[in-house]
Structures are given as structure tokens and as C-alpha cells.
Amino acid sequence: MRFAPRATVHLLTFAAWLSGCASTPPAVPLGPVSLAQEETRVIAQDLASMELRYSGELTSPQTATLEKADYELVSNGQVLEKGTAALGVTLVPGSPTAFSFMASTPSVKSPEDLQALSDKGGSLLVAVRGTLTVRSGESERTLPFAASRQVRVPRLPRVKVLAMEGARYSDEQVDLVMRLGVENPNPFPVRLDGLTWTLGIQGRRLGEGTLGKQDIVDAAATGVYPVEVAVTRETWGPEVRGLIAKGTLPYQVAGELTGPLVRVPYSLSGDVKLNVSR
Length: 278
Known about the structure:
four-stranded antiparallel β-sheet, seven-stranded mixed β-sheet, 61% strand
């Protein structure tokens, strides 16, 4: 029987010891991660949708990565939208690290929804909530988050008669100039498709048309749209002298304001006093 030399046995034992020392140490579990400074802000809004930004600060006891946020947008207890935001934010041990992500959702889906919300008025409680995923090596943690804020509800624009003037040029001619106003009560611009109008005097139609096609009314502003018609023998008839002689004419204007999800019918009336044109 042959035996390995003593030196060879020692070398094999040493090699095995080195191999054990070179093996990868077990991963250190990721310690508790704390979340602070949570906030939700409205970044953009229109009549049909809103865009929110959720932000916060994470503090990790060791180097880690905030990988993603799985979120829900909730309004008055109803889930409006779900999504996942990829973040990839490196967390420095013991140092609060700021992060944020954007989320958008439709606030209404039909003209009827918008009308109901506008009639209700006030504000909505909107929240962004969900879970954050943090990873360090093979160790992973998830922690819940939630932040809410009050958001003013969108309101439909209103049509008003801003001014109505009548200039009498003769016993058979009066020129009427009406200024229709589209009042936007929202803190954001509103886009219009058009404002139709039909103007009549004592129930007799004198003119019609469409104004403000593809126009934009600024936030908290009023768009002004002039309407001009003439009361003459040609437009009214042979009784125009008796009409003009009254000095005051009753008018009616009606139509519809339209835009994305906007359907606002209107009907307005009043009296216009005739002035003598010089």
C-alpha cells in the first residue's frame, strides 16, 4: 500500500481552508426603511383630467435602491387609476433621499359626469397610495405610502350677456351690438369648440352664427364675443317704424357652448334701449 507524502496532505488541507475563506459571506438582510415628508400636489388639471405628483423621503440603514412604486389614485374612496412607476433611486445609508413620481387620471368620463360634478361644486379629496419596493442585493422590502389633498372640482363655463347696445340711425334702421361673455371659473384654461347663437327681437329671429371656434378662455377669465345684427325694413318688415319708435326693444339670445365634454345650452333675454347715432 502506498501513502501520499505528508507535505502533499498539508497542501491539500491548506487549499481547502483557503477555499472556505474565499466563499461569499451570507447577504445581510435589509434593515427597516423609514418614509417621511409625504406630499401629493396637483401639477396640471383641465375639465376632464388631472396630473398629480407624489413625493417623499426614504431613509435606509444601508445602501439600497428604491426600485418602483405600485400606486392607486383614489377620489372619495373610488379607485380612478392604477399604475407602476419605475424609479431606480439610490439610497445612501442613513441619509434621507428625496424621490417623486407623476400619475395622471381622468376626473370625468362624460358630459353628464362633468355636469353633475360642476353642479355639486366644492372640492374633492384625492389620494395617491400604494407600496414602495426597496432592494439591497437579494434582500427586498415593501412599505406602504399614502398622501392626499383637496382638489377644487372642475366647473363648467357660463355664457352671459356682457353688454347690449342699440344705435338708431333712422326711423327704419337700428344696429344692435351684443357682447356675449364666456366666463371660465376654473384655475386652468378651457378650450372651446364653438359658441352658437340665435338673436331675436320680440320673438322674430334676426341672425344666427357660431363664434369662438377652437378658442381658449384663460384661467379665471372671460372670453368676449361680439354679435351684430341690423333691424331694418329688410330684416323686420314694414312694421319696423312702429317697433323702433318704442325706443326700447326686447331681445332674446339662445344657443349652445361646446368643447371637450362641454355641452352648455343657454337662453338669455332682456331689453335694449335705443340711442340716437350722431
